[in-house]
Amino acid sequence: MPDFSFSSASGLGVTLDTARVRSSVESDFWEEVAIGHRVRHSVPVQQTFTFSAGDPERLDAFLQNQTAIVSRSVVQKHIRGGHVTVNRKKITKTGYALSEDDVVVISLEELPSSSATIDPVDLDLTVLYEDDACMVVDKPRGLTVHPAPTVKEPTLLHGAAWLFKKRKLKFQPSSVLVHRLDKETTGCLLIGKTPEAHLFLQKQFETRTVEKKYLALVYGQPREAKAKIDAPIGRHATERTKMSSLHITNSKQAQTTYETLGSQNSTSLLLCELHTGRTHQIRVHLESIGHPVLGDSTYGSGASAAFAKKLKVDFLCLHAWQLAFDSPASKKRVHVTAELPEDFDMCLTLLGLADAKVTA
User: Whole-prediction pTM value?
Assistant: First the structure.
């Protein structure tokens, strides 16, 4: 199977790096959390956390991102109050400029309960799998996974809070989402029911034992029917809301395997498997080989955008189809499949690719 490798071009960008967090009580677990940070903590989680900066950025913005369900103003209050240190030096300036690998410590003892900020909302989420320790939900299109300052509407985390309420489970926002999906991506999303289960599942993401398979409808037909794209990904040097495998300086290793299931009418249905979990990974990788995901307004080409408009496809044709992991409850392998959304399925039928997905 061919292996496509890409070298990153020089530029001014910095990587959306992995942050590390450690609680005041030692633990043997490293986890990949839903907001894109790597966390080390014990159960129960303590109130003092240590973070290692990835991107150069403001101190208050960095800490607000780490504690995403706490407001910027609360974080700023703690900085000014002397509850934050950088490299063991107390910092009271909220706009202090962090450098990569700076060690940041914050005491959250006086923060309000984070669970109080996540009101349960019935989002009519479909549960695809459930046991005593975890569940897999079918994420709908257009739903942001995690709260953020710019997100005003309910998120999947609010929907998870509703599911916990119905089951009379204790809801701890920081120990629920095991990973994340882009807002416009549909399909399997894994949720932990307890901090212990969350850690167990996160460990599998870190050691890359979780199988993540996606269905992607792309513009054009890849030259190689099956290949591995091995291209580092980092934040775009000039377009800061985008990721890239070319216009970057700092980057993280990223690998995606794809297999062409069928090609018709200037499109191809690909089965993609993630071997790493970088932001927008599949979308960036497929764009980098000249075959962007149909309906991708961020990474699509002019030609793919025109073709999508002609077909009246106004949604991202990317679906988290299958997820396989070891259950914290039974320790047995669990395989979960999310059926394609109706509009995606109809699009495949229109293009003559309805039978292609059957072979996946």
Answer: 0.73
**Residue boundaries of the structural domains of the chain:** 3-10+209-359, 20-114, 116-206
Q: What's the CA gap between 201 and 195, in Å, rounded?
A: 10
Q: Which CATH superfamily is domain 116-206 in?
A: Pseudouridine synthase (3.30.2350.10)
Q: Which two tokens stand for residue 140?
A: 């709908």
- Residue 200's Cα: distance from chain center in Å? 18
State pLDDT tens for residues 6-34. Answer: 332 222 222 223 333 333 322 222 222 33
CA-to-CA distance for 234 and 278, rounded, in angstroms?
8
Which positions are catalytic? 182
Contacts of 280 (CB under 8 A, 6+ apart): 182, 233, 242, 243, 298, 299
| Burial of 319: CB neighbours in 10 Å, binned 0-12, 13-18, 19+ | buried
Which pLDDT tens digit goes with each residue over 198-237?
989 988 988 899 999 999 999 999 999 999 999 998 878 7
List pLDDT tens digits, range 64-87: 766 544 567 778 888 998 889 998
d(CA 149, CA 72): 8
- Residue 289: half-sphere exposure toward Cβ, Cα within 13 Å: 28
CA-based nearest residue to 274, from 332, 241, 230, 316: 230
281 phi and psi, to 5 degrees? -55, -55
Q: Which CATH number applies to 20-114?
A: 3.10.290.10
Sheet holding 103-107, edge to edge: 31-32, 38-40, 20-23, 48-52, 103-107, 84-86, 89-90
Q: What six digits make up the tokens of 243?
A: 């990721």
Domain 3-10+209-359 classified CATH 3.90.1300.10? no
Name the nearest CA neighbour of 187 among 318, 319, 315, 296.
319
The residues pairing with 219 across neighbouring beta strands, listed in sequence order, are: 267
* C-alpha span between 27 and 40 (Å, rounded): 7
Domain 20-114 identical in fold to domain 116-206: no
Is 349 exposed, middle or buried, given 0-12, 13-18 or 19+ CB atoms closer than 10 A? exposed
